[in-house]
Amino acid sequence: MASNFGELVLLLGDHHIPSRSVSIPEPFQRMLIPNKMQHIVCTGNIGSVEEYQRLRELVGGTAASNVHCVSGEYDSINSSDATQHNATSVKTKVIQLGSFRVGIIGGHQVVPWGDMSALSMVRRRLNVDVLICGWRRKNGVVEHEGGYYIFPGSITGAYSSHTADVHPSFILLAVQGNKVVCYVYELINGEVDVSKTEFSKR
Fold first, then answer.
1. Which residues, at least 6 apart from 54, have a Cβ–Cβ distance to it below 8 Å?
2. Which of 43, 66, 126, 150 matches a 20 to 30 Å C-alpha distance to 119?
3. Could you tell me which residue ranges the Calcineurin-like phosphoesterase domain spans (predicted)?
């Protein structure tokens, strides 16, 4: 995770700790080194204030403004702490990364769930170039109707009633002006698999 790749942005979500998962897998924990990322984007369902504090620590501990969270469908149920509640109470968020306007949503509010046409409507409503969406356990990057959609998946591989065979995953973005390189990290049978996708702003 070299900083000379540009502005590094960690995308993750659907921890569900401790309700569905004990912790982030050890191979991922070894990779997530504090002060290497400039921004963290979380698509919700963190599960506890301790996990939210760990996200803050990855960007230096005090840079809460660089931790961009939205609410997942279970955050309001599981959160009894004001710090976590305040950090994850918004349903959508728009940030600027390089030349890109980026929207963030939990994903559970999109009907039909995971439908690209519905997601495209959300992207247009938010007026963003890129939409980062949680809830969908299958990770990846999709180009659709002139926009880009990024799905980090579940950082813990938390089970889902709507997706079978969930693998733990997260995505690292290297943003350089009008270019983004997406590194998708997925834990399969104890081994970390990495794939890369690039796109540029037209």
1. none
2. 66
3. 9-175
Answering whether pTM is above 0.70, one says yes
Q: Which two tokens stand for residue 48?
A: 């506890």
Q: Going residue by residue through the chain (202 aa), what tens digit of pLDDT does each one get?
A: 445 678 999 999 888 888 878 889 999 999 999 988 999 999 988 888 888 888 888 887 655 678 999 988 776 544 445 444 455 568 899 999 999 999 999 988 887 877 899 999 999 999 999 999 987 657 889 999 889 999 999 999 887 766 667 899 999 999 999 999 999 999 999 999 999 999 998 7
> What CATH code is carried by the domain that includes residue 184?
3.60.21.10
Smallest Cα–Cα separation from 169: which of 20, 56, 32, 8? Answer: 32
- Cβ atoms of 127 and 119 within 8 Å: the answer is no
Question: Across the strands, what pairs with 61?
Answer: none
Count how many domains the chain has.
1
Rg (CA), the chain: 15
Give DSSP secondary structure letters for 148-197.
EEEE---SS----SS-SS---EEEEEEEETTEEEEEEEEEETTEEEEEEE
